[in-house]
Design brief:
Layout: H1 2-10, H2 14-35, H3 41-44, H4 46-63
Helix pairs in contact: 1-2, 2-4
Length: about 80
């Protein structure tokens, strides 16, 4: 599903679509090479799942901004007890 979203967000930029498709094909190939020796992988898909989750986390870490330090975070609003 992420792949489809990336392709859609690339729009008509053929170079970007090509780069995304190449990256996805390389990932799928590497995942197959890595996981083929796991017993019963075709039945349960554990290796593929873990490898895919790791890739997703790596992409998110690269794209998403880091969380601000604790002292720079806005304080949580406390509920007002006035009027009770």
């Amino acid at each position: 599903e992420q792949f489809k979203g990336w392709i859609k967000s690339a729009g008509r930029d053929r170079a970007l679509v090509s780069r995304i498709a190449h990256e996805q094909a390389a990932f799928s190939s590497r995942r197959e090479e890595l996981c083929r020796s796991y017993q019963r992988e075709t039945e349960h898909g554990y290796c593929a799942l873990i490898y895919t989750e790791a890739r997703s986390s790596a992409i998110a870490a690269h794209i998403l901004p880091p969380a601000p330090p604790e002292d720079e975070r806005p304080s949580a609003k406390t509920k007002s007890t006035r009027g009770r």
